[in-house]
Amino acid sequence: MPSLTFVMPHWLYWSTLGVFPLVAAWLVSREQKRRDAGRPGLFLAYLFLVTAGFLGMHRFYLKSALGLVFIPFFLAVLWTSADIRTARESLSLARSEAEHAERLLTRAQSDLAAGKAGAAQRLAKAQADATPARDRHAASTAGLHRANGYARIAGVLLGILLLGDAFLLPGLVRRRRQRETMPTPLLAHPLETGVPLSAVRPPLPPFRPVDWLVRVTGELVAYWAVLAVFAYYYEVVARYIFNSPTNWVHESMFLMFGMQYMLAGAYAYRDETHVRVDIVYSQLSSRGRAICDIITSFFFFLFAGALLVTGWRFASDAMAIGERSFTEWGIQYWPVKLTMPIGAALLILQGLSRLLRDIATVAGRGE
Predict the structure, then answer these.
(1) In whole angstroms, how far apart are CA 162 and each of 31, 48, 55, 156?
(2) Is residue 37 pLDDT above 70, yes or no?
(3) Which residues are CB-neighbours of 25 under 8 A, at least 6 positions away?
(4) DSSP assignment, residue 194?
C-alpha cells in the first residue's frame, strides 16, 4: 500500500474546532425537528461509508448483512500490508549485504591490480560472495514488487465495492427508512447529563444570559469528542494499513481535550455534574445546602480568581512571543492557553449566578 504523508495544516485544525461544533449542532437540531427522527439518514450512511466503509459499516448501519462481504477484502488489505512490511525489511537487509559484497569485490580488484599478496584469493572469495548477495537482492526486489501488486489488487477490489455502494446508498437508505415504521424518539436535549431537570435550579433573571452562554459553550465544545474519534481512527488506519504513523494526531487531540476541559468546567458546574464525595451535604435540605454553598464559595472564588489571573498571564505571554509547540508540527500554543482565562471567567460568572441563587434560597425567595 502507498504511504500517507498528510500533515494537518494549522488553519484547518483551528477552523475545524470552530466550524464542526456549529455544523454538528445544526444537524442535531434539524434531525430532532423531523417527523421521522431516529431513522437511518443519508448523511450518516455516507459518513460510515467514508470512514469505515472498508469494514462494511455503512451496510451494518442499514442493517444489511451484505456488509460481511467487505471484511474478506479488508483482511486481504491487512495481509498484503504486513507482507509489504516484511518485504521491505528483507529488501533492506539484502541491499545492505549486496552493497557490502560489492565493496569487498571492488577492494579485491584494486588489490589485485596493485599486485598485493593474496589478492587473487580475496578476489575469488569476493566474487563467490557477491553472486548470492546479488541474487538475494534481486529476489527481495521481486518479492516487494509482488507484494505491492497484491496490495494494489486488494485495494482496487475494495475500492470498486465502495464506489458501487456510493451510488447505491440513496436507494438503500430510502428502503431502510420505509421498513422502519416506528421512529426512535430523541432526547429534547442533545446531551444527556444524567441529572434530573428538577435538580438544577434555574438562574435568577439577571444571570439568564450567563446561563445561556455557559450552556451553549459547553454543548458546542462537547462535540469536539466526536473529532477525536475521527482523528484516532485516521491514526490507526495510517499506522497499521499504510505504515505511516503520525505525531500530529496525538498532539492535536490532547490539546483539544485540554481546551475542552477548560471551557466546559462552567457547564458542568451549572448542571452540578462535577464528581462530589460528601457525607453530610446530600442529607441537608435545600436551604441547608444553600448555606453550605455560600460558606464554601470563598474557596471557589479564590481558586477561580487565581486561575483567571495566572491563566491570563500564561495566555498573554504566549501571544506576545507567538509560542509554538516544540514538535515538528509546531502548532500555536496561544489559543490553547487563552482558553484558561476564558474558562475561568465563565466559571466565575456561573459561580456568581449560583451564589445569588443560594442567597435567594436562604432568604426564602428561592427553592
Answers:
(1) 26, 11, 10, 10
(2) no
(3) 190, 219, 220, 223
(4) S
